[in-house]
Amino acid sequence: MAWNRGLVFPEGTRCQWYRVTKYRPNDAAQCPKPAGRAVGPLPIPLCDYHRAKAQTTGRNGEARQRWRESRRKEAEQHSVVYFVRRGDGAIKIGLTTNLTQRMDAFNHVHPVTLLGTMPGHREVERSLHARFAAHRLHGEWFTASPDLLAFIAEQQNRAA
Questions:
Q1: Mean pLDDT of 29-44
Q2: pTM
């Protein structure tokens, strides 16, 4: 989609900030200022103030980054690191926020056995991948080494 840089609206066109926000056009949401140039991929008439606000709080702006950060933190609170074993004995160290759905997805492809879980987030998963890197087969799959199996058993004993 092309950006409408420099598109000027006809004289008398009012700012239509309500089209960028979740609010409906009523007296409280309408801006009385005249529209300037268009910004972004949509030709929405905005005043200088709201054009600057759209550039800093839009899709790639600060508000979007704050929203992503809050979503990441929320996911970290509900995520678990899981250990599953497939038929050939390989063990996967993975991360999920919905263990039931993840196990269903695995079992549709090839049956796996859940060896255990532990609370954790992306950094915990990465540290485990680094810790057991010598036993990596590919990606997130590892050989069933004695130290990996001992670690899993230790985590399950802590949880019990």
A1: 67
A2: 0.57
